[in-house]
Design a protein that fits this description.
The protein is mainly α and about 300 residues long. About 75% of the residues lie in helices and about 0% in strands. It is globular.
């Protein structure tokens, strides 16, 4: 029995979420070995090679001559590759993997504000709104464990999540003109060089040589996180609402905390466990109830 288009989108985003839950750990390992924005740039260019191979295998180069969608792709490159990835790798050196992963849930807030209220591209039900707020409440419990003090970089991560909200709108539009592989090649090839330029602008020193272990991490970053994960994301938001995809993606921090515990023997705190409950309930409200979000084509 074949799955409906919506269910395909749900499972595609969920698969990408499991992959992305390792991203905070990966970025933390890389920023302690290489300049952060430089590492993001090299990883992005490796992803461009990965997508170039896929495009060659599928013989899709000639269809990229279509001029439609290129303007939208430039917005995607700026918002997602340049501002979002560059900002995340810069912030990764100043915060913990748990906070890094959890604070990326702030995109739910921005998608609700920008997509739902300002642009009215997608409609909401009360169940969806309550579920989204519950997930954010769970995140706040984890981030502020009994104190209002916070790391200013953590706050910066919240605002770093504004650009991808806009980028996803244009990415979904561009999907009408390009395949996922073509979009990601354009995004990675142009964005990778832009990130290297940003790295130079920020005064990062390019390493004269990269050790083998760092190359392994960069390959993993480019192929898996910036490659496979992004294909799953684009295919997913082409089937379900962006806000719903963000809500599913919001459970990634739960897995991140689990990996931190298994690899670094850091047990979840009482506040992290307390935050886990509303996140799960919120995810259930948003993803499992029928007709919570009405999907409207952009």
């Amino acid at each position: 029995m074949s799955l409906s288009r919506t269910k395909q989108g749900d499972f595609t985003i969920l698969g990408g979420t499991l992959i992305w839950s390792f991203f905070p750990l990966m970025s933390l390992l890389l920023v302690h070995r290489l300049p952060p924005i430089f590492a993001a740039g090299v990883g992005t260019l490796i992803a461009a090679v990965f997508f170039a191979i896929l495009i060659t295998i599928r013989r899709q180069w000639y269809t990229m001559l279509n001029r439609k969608g290129w303007g939208q792709m430039m917005v995607v490159v700026l918002c997602i590759t340049m501002l979002y990835y560059g900002g995340l790798f810069w912030a990764a050196q100043y915060t913990s993997p748990g906070n890094f992963g959890i604070l990326n849930m702030s995109e739910i807030f921005w998608s609700f504000l920008v997509i739902g209220i300002l642009t009215k591209h997608e409609s909401f039900t009360w169940e969806g709104i309550v579920g989204t707020l519950l997930m954010v409440l769970g995140a706040l419990i984890i981030i502020f464990p009994g104190t209002l003090e916070f790391n200013w970089v953590d706050l910066a991560i919240v605002f770093i999540n504004i650009p991808p909200t806009l980028g996803n709108i244009y990415q979904r539009k561009a999907r009408q003109h390009f395949s996922s592989e073509q979009m990601l090649f354009i995004r990675s090839f142009i964005g990778g060089f832009m990130l290297l330029g940003l790295s130079h602008l920020f005064g990062e020193t390019f390493p004269t040589q990269i050790d083998p272990d760092s190359w392994k991490l960069l390959l993993l970053l480019g192929v898996v996180f910036f490659g496979v994960h992004k294909i799953l994301w684009i295919e997913g938001i082409n089937r379900i609402a962006i806000t719903k995809a963000n809500a599913i993606h919001a459970i990634a921090p739960i897995f991140t905390l689990l990996w931190v515990f298994l690899w670094w023997d850091e047990s979840p705190t009482l506040y992290q466990v307390a935050g886990f409950i509303p996140i799960l309930i919120g995810a259930w409200l948003v993803t499992l109830k029928k007709d919570i979000f009405k999907i409207i084509k952009i």
